[in-house]
Design brief:
6 helices
Length: 132
């Protein structure tokens, strides 16, 4: 059960370490290769029910843990402290993404409101598909 609790924490830490230029390229390449295998459409034991998915989960957990352990300890501790303080690369990227999404949503809503106020007709983008 502890493994499931650690997955999000290790995922965030791995994200931060991947983005850090001080971490050597070799561990990054190995992690990215393992993640590439996981998302690859080629899945050899997929015909075994449940096990076909569990091996990918296990590979992902193992790859992330191995990557974290391969990173320099001082850099790893620095990122762990930043994650605890909610000031990590991951936290900043999430905040920036949410701010950009809110900004984009406000722009879309503003455009829709102005079209309603002008009385513009809204075209159904699927109407031509249904007719043809």
């Amino acid at each position: 059960m502890q493994v499931l609790v650690d997955v999000p924490k290790h995922g965030k830490l791995a994200y931060c370490l991947l983005r850090d230029e001080r971490v050597p390229r070799a561990p990054k390449a190995v992690l990215l290769a393992a993640l590439g295998v996981i998302v690859s459409p080629i899945d050899l034991p997929a015909w075994i029910p449940v096990l076909g998915e569990l091996d990918m989960l296990a590979l992902g957990i193992l790859a992330v843990q191995t990557f974290i352990e391969a990173c320099p300890e001082d850099i790893r501790r620095e990122h762990e402290a930043a994650l605890r303080a909610k000031d990590s690369t991951f936290d900043r990227d999430v905040r920036d993404t949410m701010a950009a999404a809110r900004h984009g949503a406000r722009r879309v809503m503003k455009r829709i409101r102005s079209r309603f106020q002008r009385g513009d007709d809204f075209e159904d983008p699927y109407s031509s598909v249904a007719e043809g």
